[in-house]
Amino acid sequence: MKRTDELVRAVAAAASADGFSLDPAQRATLDRLAVLGGELTGGSVRRGSARSLYVHGDAGRGKSWLADAFYAALPIQQKTRVHFHGFFDELHRSIHNHRSERDAVERAIDDVAGSTRLLFFDELHVHDSGDARLLTRLLDHVFARGLTVLATSNYAPDDLLPNPIWNHIFEPGIALIKANMEVWPLNGPIDYRTVTHNHTRGFAAGTWSTATPPLRSFQPRSVTVRGRSFPVASTDNGELTATFDQLCRTPTSTVEYLQWAREFSRWSITEVPAFSAADPEAQQRFINLVDVLVDADVPVGFSAAVYLDDFLADASRRPDAFRMASRLRLLRNAGVPKRAAESPIFDPIPLV
After folding, report:
1. How far is CA 290 from the centre of its chain?
2. pLDDT given for residue 344 in this prediction
3. Which residue among 57, 103, 165, 294 is buried most deeply as judged by most CB within 10 Å?
4. Domain layout of the chain by residue ranges
């Protein structure tokens, strides 16, 4: 009981330091996380016997913040946090390193999981059949070894890999989640990202603007990732400037986005079209790019052909774009229609 109380107090203090208090649904989720923490740290609990937990709910309800704060406060060393895109990048690299071995995938999973007791999988979502197969093997591997998994997701387990053509491929993974994890919904009426007015740091310090950017004389550059070169507008002063076409209408992937998010502390993305003007592959790349940039907390200036509200209304026709929409609401909207600019701003509750 003492350990669970300490975890609750530590996370509540972190919320207070960030300027908000937890709502009832978040507090209930924190209490459940504290039980998980007590199981992992209790002296009478044998290694690996803690019940795994799958927290899911709509975008912007505080799942990742809560899980991150819990992970930071958990007083054990054998813990590993992985983000969806970073995880698959690391796993594919490890598989390549073990490619000459018969059990290359199992060896790669061991590299990722290591000797951890808790594997925290943030923003779990599955839209690719190959990733679905790898994730199923990972889950089978970690549960067979008695590891504890904490996952956050915008999707209930049955809704993962929602494309009906491919959904059956992840049915074994869904079965593993249901058999080994407590499925915990975190719901609430408010997407806290939509009431964020703190634009002082990280991704939230970025902007979405329809104003034509000032003419600048760029010396075209190229950036290289694992032997492949990609043209961009500029890499001056630690800032990556590139057009939507350069980032999303070329054969780029999250491998490149992850590398550039580590290399460049600011981004400018220009010539962003209406969402429907991009083909489905470019749309998915843009969704993945926003995922990576938010996780890396990189400030980005988006220069677009349409207002943000119109861009997001257009994107709402795509079922898996809701997460991107919630995240883009973090931005300072530097170009808005007059009718929106004249509307009163009311921030009824603190953000999460």
Report:
1. 9
2. 37
3. 294
4. 2-185, 192-341
